[in-house]
Amino acid sequence: MRVLVVEDEQLLADAVATGLRRQAMAVDVVYDGAAATERVDLNDYDVVVLDRDLPLLHGDDVCRHIVEQGKATRVLMLTASGDVSDRVEGLEIGADDYLPKPFAFSELIARVRALSRRATPPLPPVLERSGITLDPNRREVRRDGREISLAPKEFAVLDVLMRSEGAVVSAEQLLEKAWDENADPFTNVVRVTVMTLRRKLGDPPVITTVPGAGYRI
């Protein structure tokens, strides 16, 4: 899952991003509305966590811009106002969900995950393929009943591969979905992560390399 956090309170923005990354999400962060529109034009995000009161460009205008693009990106709008009319107005602009500040981080995580499910074709809550089961909500992976401990990026890569349902996923696609915009496109981090993931999943190997194309399960 790839998420954009747009929040002008930098400490809050960075704290939210850190928490989401610990949930195996790829997260980009910007601190004003103008930068947000630039990012959504360049990248495909599953969810945008969007503060309403932003400098340079108001959050309402950012939300309208996202909606006008016609992408599957979902918007979770944040606001310091708990007024009902404020929430209704935000939803009418095109936001998919609304969360007043202050909020419990566990609720933010749950809402982001729920919106992500709406941004993609429906899949079972627990993914199963080739003897592997992956539970995104509990962040649990098992192979033939054996629990496997994975680092966040390993979990994210496995999640992308399993959601592809047997289709080939390129290294570029994995880099886009499992890492953030600061990842070096020329790095070998995808190859190294897949190699480590293969080792942890054990024999017989389930991740196949398709020469010149990418990987699949």
TrEMBL record:
Recorded hits in SUPFAM superfamilies, A to Z, give: CheY-like (SSF52172)
Q: Which CDD domains match?
A: trans_reg_C
Domain of life of the source: Bacteria
| Listed GO biological process terms | regulation of DNA-templated transcription
Q: Which InterPro entries match?
A: CheY-like_superfamily, OmpR/PhoB-type_DNA-bd, Sig_transdc_resp-reg_receiver, WalR-like, WH-like_DNA-bd_sf
Q: Which GO terms describe its molecular function?
A: phosphorelay response regulator activity; transcription cis-regulatory region binding
Keyword DNA-binding carried by entry: yes
The Gene Ontology CC terms held by the record are:
cytosol; protein-DNA complex
DNA-binding positions are 124-217
What this protein is called in its record is: DNA-binding response regulator
